[in-house]
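Same chain as my last thread, 311 residues:
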Amino acid sequence: MQTTTDQALDTAHSIIEEARADARRRPTIAGLFDEATNTVSYVVHDAATKKAAIIDSVLDYDAASGRTATRSAGLIKDYVEQKGLEVQWVMETHAHADHISAAPWLQQQLGGKLAIGKDIIRVQDVFGKIFNAGTDFERDGSQFDHLFVDGERFAIGELEAVALHVPGHTPADMAYVIGDAAFVGDTIFMPDFGTARTDFPGGSASELYRSIRRLLELPRETRIFLCHDYKAPGRDDYAWETTVGQQRDENVHVRDGVTEEEFVEMRTTRDKNLAMPELIMPSVQVNIRGGRLPDPEDNGVSYIKIPLNTL
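reply #2:
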């Protein structure tokens, strides 16, 4: 049952119910799947005004050669231009550890404000030390144009939206409720796959459980759009859209009836056996900088550091 003290959740409820009652308040959503990183990027727009937001973009990165490319981001650019959209926001749900963000490139090409949750400063502080980023690396979120706080309302054209802080996977994870849809980042996966890991620095299984249960207090019909899909055993196709009701009834990790204690034990045990994401070293170093590569050294080349025996 929804609590009466969670004003941010109350706001989300109101936005969702208004959108369900009026189709003009519902966003048009395109999901673009990058199979190399199992990531879904979204273009969300208001049909009336053609104003748009881009969520969780991907910069192609070849780990063997250290080369970057904009094939995936180029598909987003093409879609935006073909639809005649005006980008207002280039948003991140968190500082990803499995892919590099293409947000700066897309912002340069299409405009919009680069945004993330305000607790990115906590992630910058932790990983700034891990990567020995030095005093030139600002740990105040200034690499982004806007830092969302929990319950902050914003708009995409005439679409109403609200940001919800959902920590656990990382301290800075945000979900964005836009009309009748919620973009939840790495908090949760398809019901047959479960939930995100919590063993990165600053992660917490208890916090993730509470964040997910908070999201699952939204109306059952709320559309949920995921950041990743890994095809659970027995499923042939990738999928990234579900509903609050489906998650409450079917999620293998956190459906209704699973207690916090049960979830924490499961998540902690499972995380101990997971390998680090293949691209965590380049991804985190770049993403805490707002998707910008480390400053070039005196030979004009940017370098990715690999801290040994640390993570």
